[in-house]
Design a protein that fits this description.
It catalyses: Hydrolyzes single-stranded DNA or mismatched double-stranded DNA and polynucleotides, releasing free uracil. By secondary structure, the protein is of the alpha/beta class. 44% of the residues lie in helices and 8% in strands.
Length: 296
């Protein structure tokens, strides 16, 4: 407190204690008070108006990106396909040799993420039907078995509706490993070079099993077997018999297509292809089976 103001303050305090309720102030004293007040106001920090805070931006949630065409092209140079010479012996002995060769393939192993598995085919060595897909997915490379995810569960239902069991047929893929993708999730179709590398393993499985019919599940699998054809359309070729290595080949939609297209027509198309396979193998077909997925 400035000396002038302190003197006035103490004098007023003294007079209040003395019982005085009013006091006369000279013009000089009033001017001192005015000067002190003006000086105090000038020295006071400027009043800062509070700045309205902008609302904090909402955290951006990024969905896992699906593999793009650019990602699909970022494929390492694939080595020459392996040579597979099956030994003499029983089907079981030859398949044991082949599975060990597939599971120990250095290139296939190098394409896997830690903890994932190579996926050879599985099923009866006496199977008449070989269901062939394109490549393992996320669930398959964990289990080391083809078609165990949602699409595989639907394939199992189709097989059971045929009057067969999963153990009575053979199920496999052209690829023995899941095509790697840059991110933690997602799938991409295998490249032609990747399928070409794994094709000898598929041919060896066919040589051992000697099925009467191959069911190609989806266009990618069909392209892997017959060679890519940009003019090929599943909507036109499905249900029409083809041939691969002198084995009857029936193209049909992949089960994942049915998971995306729940309409009755899509289900009937696949079932008609299945009925054609059953007729080719002279399997018994009931009227109930023939009427599945028909419009009422």
């Amino acid at each position: 407190m400035k000396p002038e103001l302190a003197a006035v303050y103490h004098e007023l305090l003294r007079r209040q204690k003395a019982g005085e309720k009013s006091v006369y102030l000279s013009d000089e004293t009033l001017q001192v008070l005015r000067d002190v007040a003006a000086a105090a106001e000038a020295e006071a920090p400027a009043k800062v108006e509070p700045v309205a805070k902008e609302p904090a931006p909402k955290p951006k949630v990024t969905k896992p990106s699906r593999p793009t065409a650019k990602m699909a092209n970022e494929i390492p140079e694939v080595p020459a396909p392996p040579s597979v010479a099956l030994p003499d012996g029983t089907k079981a002995e030859r398949m044991k040799f082949l599975r060990e060769k597939i599971l120990s393939d250095d290139w296939c192993q190098s394409q896997l993420k830690p903890g994932k598995k190579v996926v050879p085919g599985i099923g009866s060595l006496e199977a008449q039907i070989f269901f062939c897909g394109e490549a393992p997915g996320a669930e398959e490379e964990i289990e080391g078995e083809p078609f165990v995810g949602p699409a595989g569960q639907l394939l199992t239902k189709i097989i059971q509706t045929m009057g067969l069991s999963r153990e009575a047929v053979y199920i496999g893929n052209i690829m023995t490993y899941r095509p790697p993708v840059p991110g933690p999730v997602g799938n991409r179709p295998p490249a032609a070079t990747e399928m070409a590398y794994c094709l000898p393993y598929l041919l060896a499985q066919l040589e051992i099993i000697q099925p009467k019919v191959i069911v190609a599940l989806g266009k990618t699998a069909l392209d892997g077997l017959l060679g890519a054809d940009p003019k090929r359309r599943m909507g036109k070729i499905r249900g029409h018999w083809q041939s691969f290595n002198d084995i009857s080949l029936m193209p049909t939609y992949h089960p994942s297509y049915l998971l995306r297209n729940q309409g009755l027509q899509a289900k009937r198309h696949v079932w008609e292809d299945v009925l054609a396979v059953m007729e080719q193998l002279e399997m018994p077909i009931s009227e109930k089976q023939r009427s599945y997925f028909l419009k009422p």
